[in-house]
């Protein structure tokens, strides 16, 4: 045991010096019953050494161990973000070098433009991609999202609706396209259409929590309050800090005569409102200093 501890300390010292080739075999001697502190140090050193050695498989494996053992540690989360950003940047560079004229390269360009809110430029690239690959999944959805993101353009909602329908014609499993068709229908006061679309989205992706909120809101709008309770309860349980979920649930509870439940949801909503207002005020104070 003493020998193992000594090897680990030497491995940690070597890793701190950047001598990862020598450190890695020693770090692997971590016993299964090691204490939390030494376990954290060794696993973190292992991950950082794998990064220095540019060993992608070892890096990801080490990060997965860290994520499992220390899921809420800020340094682990930061390191995970940095690693996957590096992987993404490296893959993007390789793609541009290996297949510079591919639709995948142009899709990355369009997605980059989206992140800059350059919707028209992104949409132009997506349309070019579709000219060559008319049945490619995901592109009509992107065009629909770009249309919704430009509400000042004429017919933006109708254009978005058309693109989401086109997407589903190519990929009937696209839950997000169903969700957005539900959103559009709800905005237009087409409650039954909205209910149908949100229900389909949930069937396709049971973890798409915004679809539960959308379904509950549409059912409330259609005055089908009893039916609205289950999806709204699921949404509020999954996303407890969202004010909209508690607000909509309070409406449903109140209309079916569940006063205590409605009052509880209203209190939660008000508490979240106060918390949000306090955060905004604190942010304003920081900016004014």
Helix content: over 70%
Q: Taking all residues together, what is the mean pLDDT?
A: 91
Uncertain parts: none
Q: Determine the CATH topology of the domain at 2-96.
A: Serine Threonine Protein Phosphatase 5, Tetratricopeptide repeat
In the CATH hierarchy, what is the class of the domain at 2-96?
Mainly Alpha
Structural class: mainly alpha
Number of DSSP strand runs = 0
Radius of gyration: 25 Å
- Helix-strand string: HHHHHHHHHHHHHHH
Which oligomeric state applies? single chain
Q: Biggest sheet, in brief?
A: none
Strand percentage, roughly? under 5%
Ends distance: 55 Å
The CATH architecture of the domain at 2-96: Alpha Horseshoe
Helix count?
15
Q: What is the overall silhouette?
A: globular
Can you walk me through this structure?
This protein has 289 residues and is mostly helical. Among the domains are: 95 residues, Alpha Horseshoe (Serine Threonine Protein Phosphatase 5, Tetratricopeptide repeat); 86 residues, Tetratricopeptide repeat domain (Serine Threonine Protein Phosphatase 5, Tetratricopeptide repeat, Alpha Horseshoe), CATH 1.25.40.10. The chain has 15 helices and no strands. The model has no long low-confidence stretch (mean pLDDT 91).
């Amino acid at each position: 045991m003493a020998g193992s501890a000594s090897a680990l300390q030497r491995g940690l010292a070597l890793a701190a010096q950047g001598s990862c080739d020598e450190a890695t075999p020693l770090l692997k001697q971590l016993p299964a019953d090691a204490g939390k502190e030494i376990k954290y140090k060794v696993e973190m050193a292992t991950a950082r050494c794998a990064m220095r050695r540019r060993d992608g498989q070892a890096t990801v494996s080490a990060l997965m161990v860290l994520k499992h053992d220390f899921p809420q540690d800020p340094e682990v989360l930061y390191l995970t973000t940095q690693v996957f950003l590096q992987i993404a940047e490296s893959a993007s560079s390789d793609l541009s070098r290996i297949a510079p004229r591919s639709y995948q390269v142009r899709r990355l360009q369009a997605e980059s433009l989206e992140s800059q809110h350059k919707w028209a430029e992104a949409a132009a690239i997506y349309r070019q991609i579709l000219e060559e690959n008319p049945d490619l999944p995901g592109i009509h959805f992107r065009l629909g999202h770009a249309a919704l993101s430009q509400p000042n353009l004429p017919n933006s909602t109708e254009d978005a609706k058309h693109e989401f329908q086109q997407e589903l014609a190519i990929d009937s499993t696209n839950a997000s396209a169903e969700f957005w068709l539900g959103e559009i229908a709800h905005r237009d006061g087409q409650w039954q259409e909205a209910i149908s679309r949100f229900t389909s989205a949930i069937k396709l992706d049971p973890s798409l929590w915004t679809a539960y909120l959308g379904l509950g809101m549409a059912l409330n709008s259609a005055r089908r309050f009893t039916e609205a309770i289950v999806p709204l309860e699921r949404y509020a349980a999954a996303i407890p800090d969202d004010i909209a979920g508690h607000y909509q649930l309070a409406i449903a509870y109140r209309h079916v005569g569940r006063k205590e439940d409605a009052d509880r949801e209203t209190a939660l909503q008000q508490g979240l409102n106060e918390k949000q207002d306090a955060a905004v005020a604190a942010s304003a104070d920081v900016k004014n200093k």
